[in-house]
Amino acid sequence: MSDEYQAFIDAVLEAAPEVGDALRAQGEDTAPDLEIPVLWLGFVGRAVATCLPRMSPDVASRVFGTVEHHLAHGSESMSTAVATGFLESVAGAVSAGRLAPDLLAGVLGPESRAYIDAWDQFTLGRSSLERS
Hints:
This protein has 7 helices and no strands. By secondary structure, it is mostly helical. The relative contact order is 0.14. The mean pLDDT is 94.
């Protein structure tokens, strides 16, 4: 299990080293927290949401390609943590107005988009990624 989480953060940090700085600014570690991986991936999602507006399209695509891969092909534990930790965190940044919806919508893979749309429907009654 730990290898999967380490591979996730390694790929994210290789694509976008600034995410590590954002994690440390939150008082979090870049090393996976295997005690509570959902919470740790929530912090990673928050860091990515903070950095996303300044990422190049290529970098953002690489980061969210990693997210999509681990959501769709990871173990049950990993895909659950990516969904309920990482994706719910970035969705929360959008619904709180800290991240532009079109910026996030433009980099999500199909599984990630489907999860966020379902989460938004459950929590907001609408998609936060669609223009009102």
